[in-house]
Design goal:
3-stranded antiparallel beta sheet; alpha+beta; 4 domains; about 40% helix; about 325 residues
Length: about 325
Amino acid sequence: MAKNNFIKFKLTKERKPVSFQVPIKGMMLNRKDRAGAPLKHIQYIPGHESIWKEDHKGDEQPKNIWFEDGFLNVHKHNQNLLTILKKHKWFGVHFVMVDEEAEDAKELERFDLIERAIDKVNIANEDELRANAIVIIGSHVFDYSATRLKKALKQKAFEKPKELIEEMDKGNYGNRLAAALAVLRDVVIINPTRTAITWPDGKPIINIASGQDPITEFGTFLSQNTEEIKVTLQTIGQHIKAKRTPKTEMDVDAIIPSQQVTPEPEKVTVDAIPETIEVKEEPKTDLETAREAFKTKFNKEVPINKKNDLEWINSKLKEELEPA
């Protein structure tokens, strides 16, 4: 059948059965070709010139009107059925007429949104990929493999593209991403009880209320527009750059907005923001070595709640080395 010769009706969200009958028994309309336009019963008999029951003198039986799989196609010349459907009290409530051009345009817009969302989460760098996933999906993805992270982000992009795009376009997104990157790169430390975030030397940055997610709270903290936060972000950006390697190199400046600040002497020292950091000369701590060993043995990161628990990591490594 030629598509343009048919007008499509579809059920609304409230009704989605496989088959749905439009009730017309007892339906009455004003018959405007009669004086006073009295209410008269209607019937649908295919091929008949009239929709009025009083005009049907033969033994032809009225036909029921059914939606199949949520749709009903009506030939554009079938004016009787079109009139009944458009005048029915359920028109616009339980079923509507489809504007296919508008429907196609709406679907195309959805496809475009999905493409844009997927493009935003097509991230090659694993640290940046993981940080984005933590901000967008939640801290529970911290230990996911790179493959699982990509799948989770693309699934979010496909299912809720508009929500993902709006989230990543928020003005504070870069600051929240900086929070996740800072934790991933050990620029800041979540204490074992998950009640504070500190610098590696133990100096506190922010206390975390019991039951709250540290990375989320840290991201909210970094989203404040204060001189102290600007200095903290500047320090984080410098340390993230210092800790990068060829494998994890990324454009940190594009992620963390540059902060034009004049730090107060008592808040920022030369030790806090060094002009140059020779990372390669810094010896690895026992904790860093243990984390690398854990990742090598188990092919995954240390769980976030055990990331700074050297005793637990070493115990797991010993268990793995014991004979079966």
